[in-house]
Design brief:
Strand content: 15-25%
Strand order of the largest sheet: 4-5-13-10-11-12
Largest sheet: 6 strands, mixed
Radius of gyration: 19 Å
Bound molecules: pyridoxal-5'-phosphate, zinc ion
Number of strands: 13
Length: 382
């Protein structure tokens, strides 16, 4: 009953808005970008009823009133979220690590997929299309399978074979596209004119799932906020999710400040690193080279401007990591009991760099976003 009342309010309040040209749009299954070409955000007012939250089970749906799904029957959950936040030591430095490969599909992308596909179910959409470097595709395919929604996933030809097998196992139609990640996105957009575009980079409902990363850290740190968050950044879905989550907590009066956001990119594909260093407000085209960190090999991030704004607002920075550092970090984490994807190893390599120059009193939180089981072939070559 409580949910029903709060749902009615959500229904009236949610709408899309464009931060580029300041236009608003009602929610609609066919709208995935603004008429000006820009990405859209979601206008939504979350609530944090602490007593109720504390009584609920350890999944990200414990923040029910902060997630923009209207009806409880729309929720598609596989018990995801509330991942461990562990204290770890590297190079003599202690920090906290959020183990976000502990999700049903083996990566943090389930945070976004559980919310986005619940919304898709709520809208009564029969078929979706998505493009991905593999992990978002796996997550979208899994939740669509659970809902009985048809799903078409576009991936670059060179995607790790483990991720292709996983997407296929969920019964999704796999479309392998010759060439770059950018060509894959173009191919999916062609299909998006006919089917719902469940894009993790364009669709703001995905970010309203990944934002639960921030809520969990806040709760696991007893209502405190870390000084610094060190996160991988390609299209920035975890990065922006964390930013939105902490911002919502601040606006609700639960915390006073947002952590400094430090983004980790591969030096082989560093558009945000370059734009931040040069003081640009948008990313510019770069020449991308081969990298082990396929999850962050994004030459042209859809929300580049928004990511750069979040970094500057929080006095954060971007670090670009070499292939050698990625390989070393992957091996070092394995010896500590963490079998992770190269993309997650890039984050750890960035964390190691950051820790060298850090102020010892700072609370630093980072994350492991994908399991090594997703990239055994690549890892075996290391
Ligand atoms: C394991 C892993 N970590 C991090 C990322 C980066 O996510 P985003 O591109 O949204 O920044 C990805 C993206 O595919 C990923 O697969
Ligand atoms: Zn616009």
């Amino acid at each position: 009953m409580l949910y029903a009342l709060c749902s009615m309010r959500l229904l009236q309040m949610e709408r899309f808005f464009c931060s580029t040209c300041k236009r608003f749009y009602p929610l609609s299954p066919t709208r995935w970008r603004c008429d000006c070409g820009s990405f859209l955000d979601l206008e939504f007012e979350p609530k944090f009823p602490i007593k109720q939250i504390l009584k609920r089970g350890p999944t990200l749906w414990r923040y029910r009133e902060a997630i923009p799904i209207v009806k409880n029957q729309s929720i598609l959950s596989m018990g995801e979220g509330f991942t461990p936040l562990e204290e770890v030591e590297l190079d003599g430095h202690r920090f906290l690590l959020k183990i976000d490969y502990l999700f049903p599909t083996g990566s943090y992308k389930d945070r976004g997929a559980t919310v986005l596909i619940s919304k898709v179910k709520e809208l009564g959409v029969p078929k979706v299309v998505e493009d991905s470097s593999g992990n978002a595709g796996s997550a979208i395919a899994a939740y669509c399978a659970k809902a009985g929604i048809e799903c078409e996933i576009y991936v670059p030809q060179a995607t790790s074979p483990e991720k292709l097998v996983q997407i296929g196992a969920y019964g999704a139609t796999l479309k392998r596209v010759e060439g770059s990640r950018e060509r894959t996105a173009e191919a999916a957009m062609g299909s998006a004119s006919r089917f719902y575009y469940a894009s993790h980079c364009w669709n703001p409902f995905f970010l309203h799932g990944t934002k639960t990363f921030a809520f969990e850290i806040w709760e696991q740190m007893d209502g405190k906020v870390p000084d610094v968050l060190i996160l991988p950044v390609g299209h920035g879905t975890l990065f922006l999710g964390a930013y939105i989550g902490f911002k919502e907590l601040r606006e609700a009066g639960r915390i006073r400040r947002i952590p400094r956001l430090v983004g980790i990119q591969s030096a082989a594909c560093p558009p945000l690193y370059q734009a931040f260093k040069e003081g640009w407000s948008e990313t510019r085209p770069i020449e991308k080279k081969e990298t082990l960190a396929e999850g962050i090999a994004i030459a042209n991030p859809v929300r580049g401007r928004q990511i750069l704004e979040a970094i500057r607002e929080t006095e954060g920075e971007v670090l670009a990591i070499t292939e050698n550092e990625i390989g070393l970090a992957l091996k070092e984490m394995g010896r500590k009991g963490y079998f992770i994807e190269p993309t997650s190893a890039a984050t750890i390599a960035g964390l190691k760099r950051y820790l060298k120059k850090r102020n010892k009193r700072e609370t630093v939180v980072s994350t492991l976003t994908g399991t090594g089981l997703k990239a055994t072939e690549k890892i075996s070559h290391l």
